[in-house]
Amino acid sequence: MFDIGFLELLICGVIALLVLGPERLPTAARAAGRWVGGARRMVSQFTSELDRQLKAEELRKELRDAGDIGLDDVQKTVRGALDEAKKYEHMIMSDTPEGKSAASAKAVTDETPKHNTLAAPEENQSVPSDTLQKPSDKPS
Questions:
Q1: What residue ranges in 15-119 does DSSP mark as E strands?
Q2: Model pTM score
């Protein structure tokens, strides 16, 4: 910022000592240090806020650019899908009556009652007659 070297600071210190005297010089140095510190903090806050604003603006610009590109891609994809669907539209329209009858037949087969697997085998399943044992066939 300011290009002040050691020699310039030494000259300012000697002049301040001559003007203020040794009694008031320490209090004046403290006050000057507070002012310099406050000025540095203010400059630091200003630069950090400026950096944040620039980064935020840069992000907004990138989002706008990315949003525009993404929107174009989505529109192209949707248009392509609609064009593809229109190619097969005649197949869907011609199969509608058959599709309904096939769907109703499937619904009828799906409505058949299911057997309870927890029930005893005599209640829900018919056992083939050759697997049944007669009381006389039981081993003793």
A1: none
A2: 0.39
